[in-house]
Amino acid sequence: MTANEGSAECFVCRKHRDRGSLMPGGPVAEDDLVLVSHAVTPEALGREGTRAYLGHLIVEPRRHAPGLADLTDMEARSVGLWSTLASRALRDVAGAEHVYAAVIGDAVPHLHVQLTPRFPGTPREYWWTRVKDWPDARRGDAAEIAVLVRKLHAYLAARKD
Ligand SMILES: [Zn+2]
User: Fold this and answer.
1) Ligand 1 centre distance from Cα of residue 126 (Å)
2) What is the 110 CA–ligand 1 centroid distance (Å)?
3) What is the pTM of this model?
4) 3-state class of 34 per DSSP?
5) Which 3 state secondary structure label does DSSP give 36?
6) Distance between CA 79 and CA 35 in Å, rounded?
7) What CA–CA distance (Å, rounded) separates 50 from 68?
8) Are 61 and 79 in contact (CB under 8 A)?
9) CA–centroid distance, residue 11 to ligand 1 (Å)
């Protein structure tokens, strides 16, 4: 099986092609190999709820590669670099005190590294896997996500190599 088989139905590939409502505010950052975007609202996925955990970013290779083990060396460098830069933006722009990174991928076989910020004041019992369950967590609809995405994008676009 080649890495691009199955890409026609793949949610991540579709998001990269269509952008629009699947990518509120547009890309946070992108290069030839990788795209960084904000997670969509539950509503955009056809589920209940209009608000998403603010700052939940996704780092994905453009190519339909299932997991970290399937990346080329160049893709791996880019995924790693953007994971760091996007985390820095979450810290410096959004005020995150910590950024969790995870690859789960049980539902969608296209690598997506999930970056989830933890904000100051998050009670200890909500750290890590429950960080998005905290009732007082910052959440936003598509318009509020877009505002944050534009700030993160501007920060990353202005960085010096
Ligand atoms: Zn895909």
Assistant:
1) 31
2) 5
3) 0.93
4) strand
5) strand
6) 9
7) 31
8) yes
9) 6
User: What would the pLDDT profile of 7-36 be if each residue is shown by its tens digit?
Assistant: 778 999 999 999 888 999 999 999 999 999
- What is the CA(104)–ligand 1 centre distance, in A? 15
Cα distance between residue 34 and residue 9, in whole Å: 19
In angstroms, what is the span from residue 18 Cα to ligand 1's centroid? 13
Residue type, 92: D
58 Cβ contact partners less than 8 Å away, ≥ 6 residues apart: 36, 37, 38, 39, 112, 113, 114, 115
Ordered structural domains, the chain, with CATH: 7-157 (3.30.428.10)
pLDDT band at 1 (very low <50, low <70, confident <90, very high): very low
User: From the CA of 19, how far away is ligand 1's center (Å)?
Assistant: 14
